[in-house]
Structures are given as C-alpha cells and as structure tokens.
From TrEMBL:
Keywords: Amino-acid transport, ATP-binding, Nucleotide-binding, Transport. This is ABC transporter ATP-binding protein. Coiled coil: none annotated. PROSITE patterns: ABC_TRANSPORTER_2. One of its GO terms (molecular function) is ATP binding. The lineage of its organism: Bacteria, Bacillati, Actinomycetota, Actinomycetes, Micromonosporales.
Length: 245
C-alpha cells in the first residue's frame, strides 16, 4: 500500500538564502506515527510547511496517497488529505472550544458530515467534549493542544502533521498529549510528528528519522533509534539512567 505522504529528494528554503532542506526524503506509511527529530533550527518546521503546501519546494516530489501533488498550495493539500497543526498555540482564546473545533470544518458543506465528524472528535478527545462550551482560553496548554488536534481531524485527513505538540507543556501534560497522538493513529490517521523532545517522541512513534544538515540521515524503527547508544549521546541528551534493580 502506498504511503499516506511521501516527500522525495526535496530541496526547500526561504527567499534567496541557501536551502534548508537539501535532498530530504521521508514517508509516512498508513497506520503509523513517523517522528522526525533534530535540534532547534534543523528544519523540522520547514519539512511540515513543505508537506502542507505552505512552502513550495525548489525541487523534489510530494505524493499524497500515491498521487503526485508537488507544488499545490495549502488549500489543495488540505483537500488532498493533509492537515497541519502548527508549532505554538493556535486556539482562539475568546471563542468556545466548539467554535474552535468547528473552524476545522469550514471547507465541508455537508452538514451531516460535519455532525458525524464532530461526534468522532468528541469521542476521541474526551476533554474536548467535557469543555465544549467553555472559552478555549480558559483551558490548560495541554487541553488547548487537544482542541487543535480535534480541529485538524474534522476534515478526516489521511495524515496529520504535528509541529512540536509538547512545546511549553509540563511532563504530565506532555504524556497526555502523546497518548492522544497514539489515539489519533489508532483511529486511522497517519501522523508525521516533529519534536525537539526527541526521547519522548521516539517512545511514542513507530518510525524515527534524524534530520541533520537538511537531510534524513538515519531512519528506522523508533525503538532501534532509542536503543542506539551513539544516537542517544548525539541527539537524545545522553543515555537514560539504568533502571534500579
Ligand atoms: N520564514 C522564514 N524566513 C527565513 N528563514 C526561515 C524562515 N523560517 C525558518 N527559517 C530558517 O530556516 C531554518 C530552519 O528553520 P525551522 O524549519 O523553523 O527549524 P526547526 O523547526 O527545526 O527549529 C533556520 O535557519 C531558520 O532560521
Ligand atoms: Mg520548528
């Protein structure tokens, strides 16, 4: 089966500056969480911007569900099945949770479909259902992130792009958010996750990729990357402490 999204040999950058991505290849098979890790400034957000059509690649190929979509803008990419949850916070604090979630359905004309998707995301994210009529600004950071997840799933995307969902969250909220990422995968949406919080993200993901100098230079089962001592020293802030007997 074709991957939900493939970026093949992508070069991309900003204006006249040297390219940020220099022959990057990454794919997200159906039913998986693929995690791209790398330090601040490595180009993780740039990968997601290319994947969602916010930034056109200078060269390379992008396919969604096996169909080439290279060069399409964000609206076409969304219609093709790619949803993007941006880095930072993007809930509207003065609007209710319901209004924030329903913004994700603005492209859907069929009211019955909107109702069905609403029920789906309320089931998947219990906190969204519980706080449905609350102003979103009153929710914690982790709860707001789940509102953003729910909004992104309203279009029933093939793949959702998550840009550092744990940013600014405490460890408990981070765990909850990553549990919800797994639920999204289990409910049928493939996930391309980028994170600076590499260890936690690799513990959640099925496949891990390390971004370095604009390319993916190591990829494989996330558990293998976590177990590699050299990788741990280079990218994961050292090895975890040995568990006490
Ligand atoms: N809008 C932009 N205009 C110019 N340069 C940018 C822009 N966004 C990012 N960059 C540059 O591209 C590089 C990669 O940035 P980014 O993809 O945001 O990295 P990461 O998400 O891994 O921290 C950095 O050198 C950054 O300064
Ligand atoms: Mg970033």
């Amino acid at each position: 089966m074709a991957s939900e999204i493939e970026l093949l040999d992508v070069q991309a950058g900003y204006g006249r500056a040297a390219p940020v991505l220099r022959g990057l290849t990454v794919e997200v098979p159906a039913g998986t969480i693929v995690c791209l890790v790398g330090p601040n400034g490595a180009g993780k957000s740039t990968v997601l911007k290319v994947a969602s059509g916010l930034l056109a690649p200078r060269s390379g190929t992008i396919r969604v569900g096996g169909v080439e979509v290279t060069g399409q803008g964000p609206q076409r990419m969304l219609a093709s099945g790619v949803a993007h949850v941006l880095q930072g916070h993007s809930v509207f604090a003065e609007m209710t949770v319901a209004e924030n979630v329903l913004l994700g359905a603005y492209t859907i004309k069929d009211k019955a479909r909107v109702a069905a998707r609403t029920e789906f995301v309320r089931d998947l994210f219990p906190v969204v259902a519980e706080r449905w009529d609350t102003l979103a600004g009153l929710l914690s950071g982790g709860q707001q992130k789940q509102v953003e997840f729910a909004r992104s799933l309203m279009v029933d995307p093939k793949v959702v792009l998550l840009d550092e969902p744990s940013m600014g969250l405490d460890p408990k909220a981070t765990s909850t958010v990553f549990e919800q990422v797994v639920r999204m995968r289990d409910a049928g949406t493939a996930v391309l996750l980028v994170e600076q919080n590499a260890r936690r993200a690799l513990e959640t993901a099925d496949i891990g990729c390390v971004l370095d100098l604009g390319r993916v230079h190591i990829s494989g089962p996330a558990a293998d990357l976590l177990a590699d001592p050299q990788l741990a020293d280079l990218y994961l802030g050292g090895r975890p402490a040995e568990p006490r007997p």
